[in-house]
Amino acid sequence: MSDRPPAIETRDLAKHYRQGPSLVRALDGVSLRIERGEFVAVIGRSGSGKTTLLDCLGLLLTPTRGDVVLEGMETSRLGGNARAELRGSRIGFVFQEFNLLPGLTALENVMLPLRYTRANGDGRARAREMLAEVGLDARLTHRPGQLSGGEQQRVAIARSLVNEPALVLADEPTGELDSDTAEQLVGLMRRINRERSVTFVIVTHDTEIAGRAERIIRLQDGRVASDERRAAAV
Fold it and tell me: Is the pLDDT of residue 172 over 70?
């Protein structure tokens, strides 16, 4: 095993909410270690804590207890600005609804994460490279309304990679796509994972994604019910 720290790990991670007189334990003591270059699917029933876990991994939520450690850096004591800077430079996000700005071109949408982290002269070339990586080099000037759902999600994947992040977090990335397009997107993410050693953690109900993962983590009632390492399909 490499001496380098893992891409991300959690230590006794908990996130609790008050809902009237009740205490909701969305996460209740989750400890995970995800190595660099892994392709991990997180599954579980609605309410099991999947999205809460992803939001904690992405430094979007502050845990009630425990810590998220990104590339060896403990984040629990970081202030809001430091967390935002770390999130913007080392974590990529892919969402079910694509979350593209409709008034911007594909190229401009991919460039957005570079606004505060790269020189202006470097950003455009990097964004072009990422769009070519996902097969959209002929769609640079198209706006989201001119693209299919699958193409929009490819733009979102390119955007998630443009900062060369430590990991990419994806929340139901194929939920808005038909089965054929979803299969193509899974293959694209898996190829990028293998060729670029990008770490992917994907929350999904999609059996195609889960079947491609080399590790499947199942959550139940805010805890890890099973953590299975397997030979992933290519």
Answer: yes
